[in-house]
Design a protein that fits this description.
Blueprint (H helix, E strand, L loop, with lengths): L1 E7 L3 H26 L4 H28 L16 H12 L17 H20 L5 E2 L2 E2 H29 L4 H7 L1 E7 L15 H11 L1
Antiparallel strand pairs: 1-4, 2-3
Length: 220
């Protein structure tokens, strides 16, 4: 017999950083498109684009600070792929390729398949922030045309953002850990085993909360 336990995974600072980055990126994507494609609202969209860029830089600064100060899933170790997570990464690929028909592996913090993508995404966002900050006054830097770099990285980030939204919704629908609401209230659900009627534990795909707690920094 299995039971579920609510565990605090995402701290308030992690959630603040996540939503600052996520909402600002969506706003930047929308307003950037409006500036290029809708001249009638380009001026207003450009102003909003600047405000969203400020929020993005603040969110990135907070996330970078957490990389060095957070002792849980927000630390830099959580964004370094581990060999122990390779089986879970393969299972995640099967889960996506089968649109949720394959089993969803268990993990504590970050999705193991997305760990290297998150690290790249933060790097791409830093490039976007820096090119956006300097390209109006200094469009050429070391022989590079910053507006072109800004647009190219914006397209990459748009693709990653769309894929991230789709996969998170799929995980929330097919899984049992409430991934979407976890980024709102900080709590994820973990399936645990309970003793059977004769005191025996049945074989189960559930996750031991005790083992998660011990290995969270290594495996998250």
């Amino acid at each position: 017999m299995n039971d579920f336990q609510r565990v605090m995974v995402w701290s308030q600072w992690m959630r603040l950083a996540h939503w600052s980055i996520a909402l600002s990126v969506l706003t930047l994507i929308a307003t950037g498109w409006l500036v290029e494609s809708a001249p009638s609202v380009a001026a207003g969209a450009s102003d909003l684009h600047g405000y969203a860029a400020s929020v993005l830089m603040a969110g990135l600064a907070l996330r970078i600070w957490l990389l060095f100060t957070d002792k849980g899933v927000g630390g830099w170790e959580a964004l370094v792929p581990a060999r122990a997570n390779l089986p879970a990464m393969k299972q995640m690929l099967m889960f996506y390729f089968t649109l949720g028909k394959a089993p969803l592996p268990a993990w504590y913090g970050h999705n193991p398949l997305w760990v290297p993508i998150y690290a790249l995404l933060y790097l791409f966002l830093l490039v976007m922030a820096l090119t956006g900050l300097f390209m109006q006054d200094h469009p050429l830097f070391a022989g590079l045309y910053l507006p072109s770099i800004h647009v190219a990285f914006a397209k990459i980030i748009t693709v990653l953002a769309v894929f991230h939204l789709l996969t998170v919704v799929l995980q929330d629908i097919k899984g049992k850990r409430a991934d979407v609401s976890a980024m709102l209230n900080g709590y994820k659900l973990f399936e645990t085993e309970k003793p059977g009627p004769f005191g025996f534990m049945k074989q189960s795909p559930g996750v031991s909360i005790d083992s998660i707690g011990r290995d969270r920094k290594k495996d998250s």
